[in-house]
């Protein structure tokens, strides 16, 4: 449903250009859940911001294959809640413009319930824990019934227990709603636990592609999960695995494999 | 709301004042006892002089303060929207900001006389900048990350301004408004002390000429109480209209 063709993004920094993303060609089939993994500065956040429409690509293009406006929901690393609105108001934030106030409230309550926070509708952001705030942010992204849900390391700031719970919740939501999900993380284990396929990004390029054909919910101690994890880690830690950003285009094999 | 410790401090100060004056450690002529000042206050209230002067001062503060808001908020918004304007005019405003409003008094008296226009002018001058800087600072400090949220939700520029930028800037705007209100009182009394025929400041300076320290002190008390009351009303208004802001107000004590 969403194709990236030779997508590139560079920023001006002083006298030179810094290439954040160099020539990425990918396809995200409808209803798929893709994780993008890589170290800090590999371009994964840039990729997500391009998909979200927060940045314009310097080169290449984004194509929507089945046309029509694409409803996009984004969850950032921080919850980014409006401090002057309560939890319910924050969930309804992007909605009120399109629907009546009564419907906005109704849908926001449903979204809050989906993330297990129905009793905290009146809580102000300052009164919520990090995990709860992030749940509100997820509800805010879900309330528009997005076709495309983009998540940028949404659980990175949470403790391990909360993170596990949230990962399972996300999978459950995905299975229920059937949205296309792109999930960016620096945590290889998380990438394997959540992705039907894992894209490995390094220096602005896709350097690996790992289909993970395991049933959800996945167990981090599972041997198969570990095998995928090791393979991705080995690929990402090989220093020569990434060509220089100015190098050749993405290997056609990967481009072909990742499109469907 | 008034805690016991707060009341205790007030009464302690009153006590020290009373003892200092009653023991004639400081001449009662220079420092009348609290009782005398209180009686003077009653007397001033009964003759209507207090109400008259207070009303004159209040009216000046109200019109000066509202005029300053009417000028500062649009200018600050305009500057936030247009970097061309900002670069062109802000240096001049920065220059003007360095001049204490009271230093402009002689000029204002020459230009505007010693009537209401000059009083209101000095108030506008002194509270324009706190309000202006509050609005400017609040808008400039808006978290880009919150604006991203609006962009993702498909907001237009106007919607982002109205639904994200202005609410985010509100704490800083409110701080500016509160500081501005405090400044306007100070400037007013200063102006009334120098050249005036009515108002609390005039009442004080007139009493000084008559060597009536009790009236001077009564006037000072009234100024303090009026300032506290107006600040309290502003805070009440904010607490009612924007409860999430209440905690941020403490930094605005100026």
Written overview of the protein:
The complex is a heterodimer of chains A (260) and B (254). Chain A has helices spanning 44-52, 87-91, 101-114, 130-142, 160-177, 188-194, 223-237, 252-258; strands at 2-13, 16-28, 33-37, 59-64, 72-75, 148-152, 180-185, 197-202, 205-211. Helix content of chain A is 34%, strand content 25%. Chain A is globular, with a radius of gyration of 19 Å. With 260 residues, chain A is of the alpha/beta class. Helix content of chain B is 79%, strand content 0%. Chain B has helices spanning 4-22, 34-47, 49-81, 83-97, 105-112, 116-140, 144-152, 157-194, 200-209, 213-241. Chain B is mainly α and 254 residues long. The model of chain B has no long low-confidence stretch (mean pLDDT 87). The longest helix of chain B has 38 residues, at 157-194. The chains are: A alpha/beta (260), B mainly alpha (254). The A-B interface holds A 52-54, 72-74, 76, 78, 80, 82-84, 93-94, 97, 124, 126, 144 and B 143, 145-146, 148-149, 151-155, 159, 163-164, 167-168, 170, 242, 244-245.
In short:
The complex is a heterodimer of chains A (260) and B (254). Helices cover 34% and strands 25% of the residues of chain A.
SSE diagram, text form:
The complex is a heterodimer of chains A (260) and B (254).
Chain A: E1 2-13, E2 16-28, E3 33-37, H1 44-52, E4 59-64, E5 72-75, H2 87-91, H3 101-114, H4 130-142, E6 148-152, H5 160-177, E7 180-185, H6 188-194, E8 197-202, E9 205-211, H7 223-237, H8 252-258
Parallel strand pairs in A: 3-7, 3-8, 5-6, 6-7
Antiparallel strand pairs in A: 1-2, 1-4, 8-9
Helix pairs in contact in A: 3-4, 6-7
Chain B: H1 4-22, H2 34-47, H3 49-81, H4 83-97, H5 105-112, H6 116-140, H7 144-152, H8 157-194, H9 200-209, H10 213-241
């Amino acid at each position: 449903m969403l194709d990236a063709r030779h997508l590139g993004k560079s920023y001006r920094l002083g006298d030179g250009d810094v290439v954040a993303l160099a020539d990425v060609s990918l396809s995200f089939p409808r209803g798929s859940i893709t994780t993008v993994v890589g170290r800090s500065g590999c371009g994964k956040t840039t990729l997500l911001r391009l998909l979200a429409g927060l940045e314009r690509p310097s080169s290449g293009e984004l194509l929507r294959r089945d046309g029509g406006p694409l409803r996009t929901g984004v969850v950032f690393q921080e919850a980014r809640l409006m401090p002057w609105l309560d939890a319910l108001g924050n969930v309804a934030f992007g909605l009120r413009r399109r629907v009546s106030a009564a419907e906005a409230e109704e849908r926001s309550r449903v979204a809050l319930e989906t993330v297990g926070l129905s009793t905290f509708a009146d809580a102000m952001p300052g009164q919520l824990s990090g995990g709860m705030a992030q749940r509100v942010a997820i509800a805010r992204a879900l309330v528009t019934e997005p076709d495309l849900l983009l998540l940028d390391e949404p659980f990175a700031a949470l403790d391990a227990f909360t993170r596990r719970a949230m990962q399972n919740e996300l999978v459950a939501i995905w299975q229920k709603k059937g949205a296309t999900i792109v999930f960016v993380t620096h945590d290889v284990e998380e990438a394997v636990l959540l992705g039907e396929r894992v894209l490995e990004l390094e220096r602005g390029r896709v350097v690996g592609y790992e289909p993970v054909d395991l049933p959800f919910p996945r167990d981090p101690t599972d041997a198969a999960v570990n095998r995928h994890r090791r393979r991705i880690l080995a690929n990402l830690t090989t220093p020569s695995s990434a060509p220089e950003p100015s190098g050749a285009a993405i290997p056609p094999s990967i481009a072909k494999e990742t499109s469907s | 709301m008034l805690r016991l410790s707060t009341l205790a401090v007030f009464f302690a100060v009153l006590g020290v004042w009373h003892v200092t004056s009653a023991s004639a450690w400081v001449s009662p002529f220079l420092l009348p006892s609290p009782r005398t000042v209180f009686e003077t206050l009653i007397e001033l209230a009964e003759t209507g002089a207090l109400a008259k002067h207070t009303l004159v001062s209040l009216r000046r503060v109200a019109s000066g303060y509202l005029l300053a808001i009417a000028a500062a908020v649009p200018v600050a918004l305009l500057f936030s929207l247009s970097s061309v304007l900002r670069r062109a005019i802000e240096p001049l405003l920065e220059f003007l900001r360095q001049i204490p409003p009271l230093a402009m008094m002689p000029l204002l008296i020459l230009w505007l006389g010693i009537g209401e226009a000059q009083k209101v002018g000095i108030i506008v001058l002194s509270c324009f900048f706190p309000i202006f800087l509050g609005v400017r600072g609040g808008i400039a400090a808006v978290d880009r990350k919150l604006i991203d949220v609006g962009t993702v939700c498909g907001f237009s520029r106007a919607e982002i301004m109205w639904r994200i930028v202005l609410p985010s800037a509100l704490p800083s705007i409110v701080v500016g408004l509160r500081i501005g209100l405090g400044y306007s009182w100070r400037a007013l009394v200063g102006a009334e002390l120098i050249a005036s025929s009515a108002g609390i400041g005039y009442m004080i300076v007139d009493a000084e000429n008559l060597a009536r320290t009790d009236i001077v002190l009564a006037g000072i008390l009234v100024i303090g109480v009026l300032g506290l009351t107006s600040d309290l009303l502003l805070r009440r208004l904010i607490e009612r209209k924007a409860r999430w802001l209440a905690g941020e107000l403490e930094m605005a004590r100026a």
